[in-house]
Amino acid sequence: MEQQARKLLNLALRLGLVVGTLWLTARFLLPWAAPLLLSFAIAGAMEPLVRLLVRHRWRRGLAAGLTSLTVLALLIWGLSALAAWGASAAGELAGRLPSLLAGLSESLDRQEERLLRLIAQAPEELSDTLRLALDAMGDWLYSLPAELGRWALDALRRLAQRSPDVLLFAVTAGIGSYFCSASWPRLLAFLAAQIPEDWKRRLSGLGADLKGSLGGWLRAQLILMGITFCELLAAFWLLGIGSAPGMAALTAFVDALPLFGTGIILAPWALGCLLLGQSSRGLGLLIAWIAVSLVRNCIEAKLLGDQIGLHPLASLAAMYVGWQVWSVWGMLLFPVLLVTAQQLNDRGVVRLWRKV
Fold this sequence. Notes:
This protein is an all-alpha fold. Helix content is 88%, strand content 0%. The chain has ten helices and no strands. It has helices at 2-55, 60-120, 124-182, 184-193, 197-203, 206-238, 244-256, 263-275, 279-308, 312-346. The longest helix has 61 residues, at 60-120. The radius of gyration is 27 Å and the shape is globular.
């Protein structure tokens, strides 16, 4: 009995050490090393093209520089196209805003009259409470544009305050990716030299396994995006929304981004439709949002587990702990960290738990 209690205590200490290490890594080390890690990842992604140029007798520094400039040009083009699209959409919205506000005001007046008639038919002790609630709701709705304006200005102020940090991060990652690519073989040799020989034997093949795990994670995200796209496309077609494929693709892409989700598009859209008197479309968008969120939450853990080789329960636990530690980024990162720990444990590099 005492030996079993000692084993359980040992297991609990190991798990606590793993969780503590993951928390410290996500809380401190990752934010500090993020631009350099991103540089390393970008250099690794560029390496096939750089290697191809080197085989055609290009100097590695020149090949790395050309590839880095190409990636930078594509990134600037993509961001510029996105900014131009956003400016065009904002200009179109600004042109339609007076008519939308007029329609919204008329719709609110009609809804208020309808609610007042219903309240007048209620018992007297209840009608006063309902009338007060309606007045409070009306005050909130009429103050909503000013609140949204203040929120937008506050967001712009925070963005302006953070812009030096974002710029420094981008410059560090961009320059670092060139230096990593230009010295890629020496960099890999240096990192390999820091690993003890015993670990090297145990880690042989780990890179291929991790590449497979990361590929599985990417496949899982693409499958989830495809499922979300199909669900939204069907919902938009049923609701008679114009440009349904484009809107479904945009919403599915936003849903795949960290810190976002379908609600960032569907919730304000549904609220606007309800306020403008388009009740059926607004309710349909809300139902679509709830359905898509339920489907994603139900299948995400199972799908990630199947693609990266984790038990669904372990994948679910990693996503939950990741959310508690580092929000949405943690939900994306912690399953990958857990599968890495699993492979290290299976190869005997660390002993976190016993295999059965």
